Amino acid sequence: MKMKKWMAMLVAGALCAGMMAGCGSSSDSTDQSAAQASDKTFDGSISFIISHKDEYLGTLDQAAKASAESKGCTLTSTDCADDMDKQIDYVRAAAENKTDAIIIVLADDTRADEVVEAAGDTKVVFLNRIPQDESVLDENHVYVGSNEDDSGTYQGEMLADALKKEGKESVAYLMFEGTEGLVHTTKRTEGVLKALDAAGITATAAAETVDCGYDRTKAMDQMSIMLAEGLDMSKVDCIIANNDAMALGVLESLRQNKVDTSNLKVVGVDGTNAGLQAISDGIMLATVYQNAVGQATAGVQAAINLASGADLSTDISYETDQDNENIIWVPFEKITADNVAEYF
Question: Which CATH code fits 149-289?
């Protein structure tokens, strides 16, 4: 999946479909994303209620709008600024306004049951962040996203490969976490450490794990605080961040404080444009690509399928979960310097 190319193609397709239908709207994965941009149209409305718009979720939002327009339906998106109470209010308002389906990126994945209650009879697609209580998922409430059991694991495997090439069997790391308590935060943090252990790498924390809320500026500030408190970076081998934004924030702090990062191994998650560029420039070691276009197009199609009474997997090439037919997985992908050019 070449993200920039496919985003451009998706937007171009949306413009063409919009002119044809007269409707408006505010690697493995390459074939799948293309397959989802079907010629079928849906003359209805979708409400996309997003937790907040950072770089990754902003891309997800753009891709959802383009996908909806390519299918001839109206999609309106609302940013709740990470306020779950507001998000539930927006869900209730969308349902009262008779939207055909709701797509939601949860601000708090422990409160999915409240979303279901607020939505009433309106169909719901949970996108990108899976509810902690998966029992809320059924034929009217589904999940589309990437399997977080893989994200941290892939980070750890790529990091272990790089360390073994240098003959290292141990590593001192700094961990920068996303929002504490969210499923994907926990799985990313635990997954990378388990993968290192499985690969025979002894991992030791050089400082306490810090919660930076997936925010680049917060990560930059936390790194600066550590340096001010006397952290010796010469004893740190790698930076592990739950997303690319935090990894880049840490690197910016180190640059500003004139810390040599040439031997520092930095890994993130998402495969944002900035993260890809950092890998290409040799600043980051690796990232785990979370396919925003794939998630968005599958999420929009899932919403259309629910609203129109079609089978959930209709016109979606991604696989459903083996144990839960109400979950569609969009695979994570490993990115290093060896294949980063494929994603531009």
Answer: 3.40.50.2300
